[in-house]
Design brief:
The protein is mainly α. The protein is 79% helix and 0% strand.
Length: 266
């Protein structure tokens, strides 16, 4: 029997997840066996993160049993940081569910339950305030931002949350968190008509996602750069970049990116 340290195995699964290889990441984690309760809890948390990540990327709904398994592991061996991480995974999952609700109209608006969105905002604020470190605090601030931006429509508040997430990411040297914040700060710059700033922020976000091996993130950023090329007047460059993103996203089942880039290819 081959023996591997659980943290190293989880790290490998995380890289597979970021490479959009969710099935491989899940299979690797499920193949692990340990008698240590702390390791079992860590494996359960890693499985839940992979499931939540895949549900967002492919708009599926399979994470609940894995989230429940983490809660069960915490009953056996409580841990404050793992409890926080589980709370964040639940927030990510619930945000994804609300974001991709089927009653969205062609204009992008949706008939939302304001009680749900208010609770999501409150949960994000609580997670931010209770976070045990800057990376986690920044991640909660980021989700407070996307909830404000995409569900509530409070863009001024969203910008403040993204700015906080960016500053905390820089302080923690958390490349993925920095890239998330810059993606959305760049969107605000783009909406304001500041294409130069949008390009600076989107290009850095893309580079950071490439650095950490986050395929979905890098492709999503390249799709935005294709939009920017179009807005800068380079239609041919926009179509060429969109075509490459479309090929990649089609191969890994990212339908929302395939649809977005198909429009840019026309």
């Amino acid at each position: 029997m081959v023996q591997l340290a659980v943290p190293e195995l989880i790290n490998a699964a995380t890289h597979l997840m970021r490479a959009a290889q969710w099935t491989a990441a899940t299979n690797l984690l499920r193949a692990a066996s340990t008698d240590e309760s702390a390791d079992q809890r860590a494996l359960a948390l890693a499985l839940a993160e992979v499931a939540v990540d895949q549900d967002f990327a492919q708009q599926t709904d399979h994470a609940e049993p894995d989230l429940a398994a983490v809660a069960q592991a915490l009953e056996t061996l409580p841990d404050a940081t793992t409890s926080w991480d589980l709370g964040m995974l639940h927030l990510r999952k619930d945000y994804s569910t609300e974001l991709f609700r089927s009653d969205r109209t062609s204009s992008g608006s949706v008939g939302r339950d304001h009680t749900i969105t208010a609770r999501l905002s409150q949960r994000a604020a609580q997670l931010r305030d209770e976070a045990p470190d800057d990376s986690r605090r920044g991640l909660a601030a980021f989700y407070a931002g996307v909830i404000a931006d995409n569900l509530v429509g409070d863009h001024k508040a969203a910008f403040a949350h993204y700015t906080m997430a960016f500053e905390l990411g820089e302080r923690a040297s958390d490349d993925l968190l920095i890239s998330l914040a810059l993606r959305h700060l760049g969107d605000h710059a783009h909406t304001a008509g500041n294409l130069k700033l949008a390009r600076e922020q989107w290009e850095r976000s893309t580079e950071l996602r490439q650095k950490v091996g986050h395929l979905l993130g890098a492709l999503a950023q390249q799709a935005l750069l294709a939009v920017l090329l179009r807005d800068e007047g380079d239609a041919a460059g926009s179509r060429a970049l969109a075509t490459e993103v479309n090929r990649w996203s089609g191969q890994v089942g990212l339908s929302f990116l395939s649809n977005q880039t198909a429009e840019l290819m026309q």
